Amino acid sequence: METDITRKQFLFLSDLLKSSVYTYSPTQKLLTLTDKQFADLTEKSKHLNITFENTGEGPSIALYNLPFFYDQQEYMQNFEISHSSRDFGILKFENSGIYFNSTSQIFFDNIDNEYPNNEVINNLYYLNIREILCNTQRADFSFANYFDGAHRIVVFISATLGTMSIGYPAINPGIDAHIDLKKLCNRLEISLTAKGYVGLFKAEVFNQLKSIKEEDRFLYLVQNLNLILDNSDHNFDVFLSNFSFDKLRDSLRLEKAKYFNLTKDILSKIYSQITAIPIAISASVFATYKVDNSLVLFIILLAFIIYGFFVVRLLGVLSIEVGSLENDFNTDKTKIESESKLDMQTIKQEIDLIASRFVMMRGIIKYFRFAFYVLTILFIIFILMQIFISPGILENINDLTLKINFYYFFKIQ
Question: Considering the entire predicted model, what is its pTM?
Answer without folding.
Answer: 0.54
